Here is the input.
Amino acid sequence: MHTARNVLMALAAAGAAVTLTAAPASAAPGDTRSICHSQLTPSGWADVSWSSSSQCGGFEPNRKQIKQLDGYPIGTEVAICASTLQPAGWIQIREYYSQSCRYSSVPSLNNNAWTVRRVS
Here is the structure.
């Protein structure tokens, strides 16, 4: 009885993990979505701002706006937060501080944002 319950709980947890990392469906270049800080930014997307929401719980800021970068033409430049990895096919051309990219409750004026350019 306990074994079956443990298996069901493990399957449910695995399903939840897949749901958290799945990319939002049918997104065009430049589309944005808001997700909680505990969710991974999907491949092809980048964090573009941080805020606080009672729906996300935990420390603040706890909600991030993400932008779809897949599909932009070569040469496009986009401002993103340094809280996400630089997407494949993009290079960093500038680093700076942005109030909207403050993703820690500890104040800092360190560079936390990038301008990236699509190169491939």
